[in-house]
Design brief:
single chain; mainly beta; M1 Pyruvate Kinase, Domain 3; seven-stranded mixed beta barrel; three-stranded antiparallel beta sheet; 2 helices; catalytic activity
Length: 140
Amino acid sequence: MPGKIISINIAARKGIEKDSVGEAMVIENWGLEGDAHAGNWDRQVSVFPVEALDKVASHKIDEVLNGGYTENFTISGIPLEELVVGKSLILGDAEIIITHIGKDEFKEHGRPYAVSREGRFGRVVKGGKVKTGDEVRIKP
């Protein structure tokens, strides 16, 4: 059963919260058009599965839920155990391969608390248009 894109988020500069957009162009070997984290590296896009909120410490959950978006894609409906390094995700017309789970250094405040621990980061292997509400699938 497919998952779903809940939100698409872009920021023109690093270190600021991302703005939600209804749709975006994902560029092969680059990332989201207009996003500061796009580029020629192995963390071109970030994906946060809402199911990972279950892993957030109880004293941090309100802070995480009320923080602004720091991930490019917020998704739901794909079990965490399927979102592993090496798997490819189809998001709308685009495809990404997961290269990392979490960051090397955890953040301690706001939404980055969760994304730095449970966010999926990857490279774009196929570009295309992506819209909020599009299906998310693991590539067979």
